[in-house]
Design goal:
Length: about 120
């Protein structure tokens, strides 16, 4: 799954009011509109996902494990803050749940594709 696809799936599931994706963007700095409810929080999170996956462009492939690990660390960091905003905590929990579902579904899809191709042998 590409970075763009992943973030678009998140936006579709969570809402454009939280993750206002600009589908026509060609660079990370233009990828999110500035009218999201928690703009700075979501922008930082999206950029961290981009960086941890060493994405050089929006259509770079992301690593499921790196992404899940990063989200877990960011969630733990948010929860450790004494003055954590409850709305951000709820959003972060939702991001983690939806991300897990998206990435798990993608992983299952890849596994099914790989297993279905195992039965084919090259014929001479």
């Amino acid at each position: 799954m590409t970075f763009r696809q992943f973030i678009q799936h998140l936006a579709d599931k969570i809402g454009m009011h939280q993750i206002p994706v600009v589908a026509s963007a060609s660079e990370i700095r233009y990828f999110l509109a500035e009218d999201g409810v928690h703009h700075q929080f979501v922008t930082a999170l999206v950029r961290e996902i981009y960086k941890c996956n060493s994405c050089g462009h929006l259509d770079a492939t992301i690593d499921h494990l790196k992404t899940t690990s990063l989200l877990g660390k960011m969630r733990a960091n948010l929860l450790s803050q004494v003055d954590a905003d409850i709305c951000k905590v709820r959003l972060m929990n939702q991001l983690c749940d939806v991300s897990s579902a998206i990435l798990e579904s993608e992983k299952d899809s890849e596994t099914r594709t790989n297993h279905s191709n195992e039965g084919f042998q090259e014929m001479a």
